[in-house]
Specification:
With 295 residues, this protein is of the alpha+beta class. It has helices at residues 41-54, 59-67, 71-82, 88-109, 118-129, 134-153, 180-190, 196-205, 209-214, 263-294; strands spanning 3-9, 12-20, 26-36, 220-221, 226-229, 232-238, 241-247, 257-260. The longest helix has 32 residues, at 263-294. The radius of gyration is 31 Å and the shape is elongated. The model has no long low-confidence stretch (mean pLDDT 86).
């Protein structure tokens, strides 16, 4: 039996019924009771109960329920729900994967969430493995599994079909390192530019790009001779445009760490501060001189 309540409008009682359509969206239906507000509340309540007991979904919603929600539509709806529970970078990654690959594929198949099988998911993985590396398909798998896990949690599915699909085997990663000459060449290229300091620190400490760009002066302790990695800056695509996100967090808990401030780096940073202070003083001096001449 659907939920409902009485509502007063223009001197009359109305029965307001509340139900969910095939997509899980809340809808309401107003039904006039024909009873004036004064002295007819019990009659209106009896009318409301009758309407709640006999209510049937509108034809368009009944058809939608029988047909079922497309898995592609479910994924888009799920991501809107999950947005507030996941990191902004994760949301950006999921949004990109869904729009570029996952949603178009499953929309083309026309499979509904209730009819989705492990074989449907496996067919998708097999097709993607022919064009991208398995590590990318592993990311697709993580997204699909998480979305279907929510469907099981909310009783839209009894089992998660992604549990029956083997996750693709991860590619072996072969890192490539700069040698001494390449590092020196890189530092020579960035010398005197805005990225000189972050590149210098990234090269010396092996920092991630987000960690190097996110370093602030308050992370440097010249008394204790330490440098703390605790702030990161990343760029991600949100709502169709790139945005810069600064966070007082790192990629993982273990990434938040304190490193020794090596003597060459300490000297370099102190020289950087000194040069910056001299530049400010020079600008202030020029400003005062110009102001004096104008006066």
């Amino acid at each position: 039996m659907v939920a409902g309540h009485l509502q007063e409008k223009n001197g009359y009682f109305y029965a307001v019924l509340s139900y969910k359509d095939a997509q899980g969206k809340r809808k309401t239906k107003w039904i006039p009771t024909g009873y004036l507000i004064r002295g007819n509340k019990k009659k209106a309540e009896a009318f409301l109960m009758e309407q709640r007991q006999t209510f049937q979904l509108p034809a368009e919603d009944t058809e939608a329920v029988e047909k079922g929600e497309l898995f592609a539509d479910y994924l888009e709806r799920w991501l809107k729900i999950a947005k507030s529970t996941i990191a902004i970078t994760t949301y950006s990654s999921y949004d990109g994967m869904m729009k570029s690959t996952i949603v178009p594929w499953f929309r083309k198949t026309g499979v509904t969430i209730t009819k989705l099988t492990a074989q449907d998911i496996q067919d998708f993985y097999t097709a993607q493995l022919a064009r991208v590396k398995s590590n990318t398909v592993i990311h697709y798998h993580a997204l699909i599994h998480r979305a279907l896990k929510y469907a099981v949690k909310t009783d839209q599915l009894s089992v998660n079909p992604a549990d029956k699909v083997d996750r693709p085997r991860k590619n072996g990663f072969q890192p490539a390192f700069y040698d001494k000459d390449e590092i020196n060449q890189l530092l020579a290229c960035v010398k005197g530019t805005l990225i000189e300091t972050p590149v210098m620190l990234a090269a010396f400490y092996g920092l991630r790009r987000s960690e190097a760009v996110g370093l602030r002066w308050d992370a440097i302790d010249f008394q204790q001779n330490t440098i703390t990695i605790q702030h990161t800056v990343i760029a991600c695509r949100l709502n169709g445009k790139y945005e810069v996100i600064a966070r007082d967090t790192t990629k993982t808990k273990s990434s938040r760490r304190t490193l020794p401030l090596a003597a060459p780096i300490r000297k370099y940073l102190l020289n950087t501060i000194f040069a910056f202070a001299c530049a400010i003083c020079s600008c202030l001096f020029d400003f005062v001189v110009r102001s004096f001449h104008l006066a």
